[in-house]
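Issue 218. Parser rejects a valid record. Input:
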Amino acid sequence: MFRKSLFALLLIPAFVNCKKAGGGDVARTEAEPADRAAPTATMAERGAGADKGVAMGSTGASGGEMARHGEKDDKSDVAAATPTTPPVQGAAGVRAGEWDDNANYRDYVKWLQESSRSVARLDVRDRQFIVVKDSKGKPVPNCKITIASNNTETSLITMASGRALWFPHAYGASNTATATALCGESKVSAKLAGQLDTITQLVLQNERALPARRTIDLAFVLDTTGSMSEEIDAVKQTIRMVAEKLSTDQTDVRIGLVEYKDRGDDVVTKAYPFSSDLAGFSRSVSGLAASGGGDLPEDMQKGVQEALEKLAWRTDAVSRMVVVIADAPPHLDYQDEKTFADSAKLAASKGIKLFTVSASGMDDTGQLVMRQMAQFTGASNMFVLRGGAGPQSVGGGDPKSSCGGTQEQYASGKLDRLILNKVRQELAAVDADPTRIAGIGKDESSKPCNERIVMAY
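Output the parser choked on:
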């Protein structure tokens, strides 16, 4: 397929390298050294936003954690891109930025309301958080939560953080509901308050039981049509990096992949099963190449559906992640397959996060679809940068900083390293405080830089 025409799209802020207008760094995320096998979360609080105690079965709000990732060089995983040093394309690899719509929920809801109405909306009003903790206050991943409301039941699975996102309107539920957590032989229930940004804690009487090795299932859903050659190479590099940096005695990572094209191509989807032999898996996908495609939309919805339903996900993995990478919107006119909204709900019910990466040329329809899938499952949206900040920076629009007023400084980095850092963040979340949630009560982007909270690896 020809490279999709370049659009100056939506104003999508990227995670910023927080600087005051005067210059100096206020907060910076440090990357974990490559030889550290199993990272734990060290939460560094900057200024306001201290934790607030939340009793069992009660609700409350706390400060947030905000991660900003960037390019790794010889010294650090983080590098800032500034107007005088724009990210460049070429030998350095595919460059990308990141934006978390859950950390900036109010901005996201406003954007949804103001965007084109031609794309279906997941109704995410009145979001709430359900947290499952063990007797020592540790988050409990993979706990089944049943929410009863309006004579219906909805099932969710807690993520690595021990949290589940609850959007009552998306499920046709009322704001009055009861959540029941069932983890092994332990069971606990509590009423949900039904108010925006409340946290309901379900505290088990016993300690959590986790596998001896921290386990991750990571799947890629990859558009392999003709304009995606650079992004395909970035995925191959990501797989090699995960194999080198995260395959240790303390960490067990499996990788799978689903490539997709469009109806009319020789192969619409092809699945590569999960494998813990990452070097072998890297060899098995080494032949992936960009080809095919026709009209602008591709069959993304089928690719996501195949990944969720046909890959053999481990129920005991502490984290399950999908990374969807595409430069074209999905066909929304195919009536015989599950929609992106169906897949987002299915992922939440399986405890799977849908991270998304909008490659250059992505139009507003694709942005609406990909950001909704990510936000609904508690994940973030990444976007490929072309030519630095400004109208030519396609895939993510024109990222602007909320730190320093008119400055256009934002964190960016190689796409492969951004994805690797998402895996590290999931591993770290298993030992972090599950009630420290970015954007509770107030968007991170609207806080002064020195009042934000970052996660250090």
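Fixed in the parser; the record now loads. The first helix runs from residue 105 to 114.
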